[in-house]
Amino acid sequence: MDRVTRRAFLGASGAALAVGPLASPGAGAAKTSSKVKIIGISCSPRPGMTTATAVRAALEAAREVNAKIDTEMIDLGGKQISGWNGGARPTAAAPIEDDFNLILPSLRSPNLGGLIIGSPVYFRTMSSLCKAFLERLTVLRKPTMLLADKPVGVVAVGAYRNGGQELVIEHIQMAMLCHEVMGVGGKPRAHQGATLWNAYDDDITRDEFGMDTARKVGQRVAEAALKLI
């Protein structure tokens, strides 16, 4: 039998460690090859209007980050969603029968990577529809925190440039912290979130600054989601 010297042994071991990950990609490679879904939710009672347009812009920017990003738009405009009633929570025996149950499967998607939540500003806070939606997300906290560590960005649309958009962003992010999410803002000029000004008769695309903040929030949510897969 040939004698193996210490130097030869160390050299062979180092070479094996260097090529190991390349020769055997394992489960990690399979995980990163799957799609990552970013869901945008427009919580305006007006379907397809300014808030929905801003959320769609954020989703479009998210898709442009990487081919692995998939997106889904949920427009709550025109849908009936009730909040908790006197603290009572729905059960299998007594569920709340409304439109929230139609979107719940998407929120439970196994490849959900992050959320972009949009709301108009009503009296310096979120819409009642947005509040009801956030309350109903409680079903995603038990038996496990399904939204834990998911990046969440916020889009807010107000009637004035400084009309309470940042307050709405804070209110939504604070509520989502109950799910142990990772709150994110956007790139420069949108560090806290997207702030849009509806000053052009519902043509929100004319607010170039605001639309830019929406796109930057979408980009940031997508980048964060990819780092967490």
Task: Describe what this molecule looks like in 3D.
The chain has 229 residues and is of the alpha/beta class. The protein has a single domain, classed as Flavodoxin domain (Rossmann fold), CATH 3.40.50.360. It contains seven helices and six strands. The chain has helices spanning 6-23, 26-32, 50-65, 100-107, 128-136, 165-176, 208-228; strands at residues 36-42, 69-75, 112-120, 151-158, 182-183, 194-197. Strands 1, 2, 3, 4, 5 and 6 form a six-stranded parallel sheet that branches. Helix 3 links the parallel strand 1 and strand 2. Helix 3 crosses helix 7 (208-228). The chain is globular, with a radius of gyration of 22 Å. The model is unreliable at 1-32 (pLDDT under 50).
Helix and strand string, N-terminal first? Answer: HHEHEHEHEHEEH
Sum up the overall morphology in one term. globular
Q: Give the C-alpha Rg.
A: 22 Å
Mean pLDDT: 86
CATH architecture: 3-Layer(aba) Sandwich
Q: What proportion strand?
A: 15-25%
Number of strand elements: 6
Compute the number of structural domains: 1
Low-confidence stretches: 1-32
CATH topology: Rossmann fold
CATH class: Alpha Beta
Structural class: alpha/beta
